[in-house]
Amino acid sequence: MDSKAIAEALEEIALLLEIKGENPFKVRAYQTAARTLENLEEDLGVLIDEGRLSAVKGIGSALTQKIEELHRTGSLDYLDELRASMAPGLMQLLEIPGLGGKKVKVLHDKLGVDSIESLRRACEAGDVAKLAGFGEKTQAKLLQGIANREAYGKRHLWWDAFAVAEPILEGLRGLPEVVRAEHAGSLRRRLETVGDLDFIAAAEEAEPVMEWFTSRPGILEVTARGSTKSSIRLEGGLQADLRVVPPAQFPFALHHFTGSKDHNVALRQRALARGLSLSEWGLSPAEGREKRPVKVPPPGDVQTEEDLFRLLGLTHIPPELREGMGEIEAAEANDLPELLRAEDLRGAIHNHTTASDGRNTLEEMAAAADELGWDYLGIADHSKASFQANGLDEKRLLRQVAAIRELNEAGTHRVRILAGVECDLLSDGSLDLSDEVLGELDYVVLSIHSGFSMDEAAMTRRVLQGLENPHVSLLGHPTGRLLLQRESYRLDVPAVIEAAAERGVALELNANPRRLDLDWRWWRTAASKGVKCCICPDAHHAAGLAYLEAGVGMARKGWLRAADVLNTRPLPEFLEHLQARRKRARW
What we know:
five-stranded parallel sheet, 24 helices, alpha/beta
């Protein structure tokens, strides 16, 4: 286990001890040790091997033993015992925004709160507001947090749902009875969150397929088992539905169950105008719509969705665009964009290392980018205002810039490493770092990490002022949302898009599965104004670089082409754009 993961384990111990009401000095010792590990400049393994860990300020002999056990085995008996001693309901309370260990203990001790439901009752009765350190506003926020949790609990992140769906799809395709199989629904349309999983399989004999589907490992419950449709509940809460259809029906069923509802309604109306009735089963004459005979194409003429669209006078509409937002009209006019592909991307510039809150070193991130075949990798660790993320002050940032330049000169990695920063936009609209230091960087990602409660006018003024700075290259996660956790802060997005267009600042499509921000629904507007999109994984570990795939899906939903996305450009053109932004801003 690396130092970052061990620091997280120590933070969890401190939190559990806080809930249990342990000595504050003991709690603080674990918190201090966690911060020490996060800022550790020497290699933890070397310190342990040389027996020098206990000499590090903030880490005593007792903590040294626990850290060494975590480093060696990846687990700790003491932590496991603490977790086992805690009522599950108390830990769930920590999922409500605004609750930490101290407040959970007060709620438990004073009101007997031991679950989210008992917290709701205490809030609704007005008891929480009466507690010292809480009040009416906190009570209202807790109730809103509970409501959000319930609403969000019915949805799952696309990334997580896709990871569950892919093995099932591969298994279906591997069955001898299955001719074709695809996933459908919101997962195939690549919505940012997914309610359940839908699978369509083509087979002449359905029973063996249903048997395989309902007897897989990881099933909590078979909720329905039929001859053509079965439903299961999987570990983690996702429901999955499988429909098995004859091969000739497959393209119709796949289109129908991919949706969306608005898209399907519009396509059925188009079919009716041609005297045809379109359904999941196929095409047939529409009763009462045409007095003259209507020729229904033989089943063999529609083998794919492309054939279906062509028959109705349309070019193929990719699943991501099927949201009833003008895609049918564009397909009729042969005016659909050639959508971005994953292979179009050359790199990404919003990524973190162990210098702030990442889990991998600069060298490890570069090696991972090499493996992916990237041309450039941008490092944008947090600035000093993000103290909770171990943000960099001016001196630490300049040391990192020097290390990046040195690594590039060494030539040990094929990828070109770009030196940047994720600079906090402060509440007054100023930037967290001096212009002098920002001028030493290849680029600057401007982001908000605090002060989310501003009203729309104030937040918009704050962002617009930040965009005035000539060093700003990219507005990071522009609306601050965390999917299934936190709503966007109030912001006049059209005004921000206009300002970005005027100033030549790119907007980020943050591909972290919990963000996917800016929302795909805004990108057609942004692209029409000439605003460039930059898709970045916001990776805090090497594996997180793969999040770029989620961003590609959102860009496709936003009708974006390769030309609309800044990081499809080769390195020389990409660097030229960054420099042009600074020159333009100085005029």
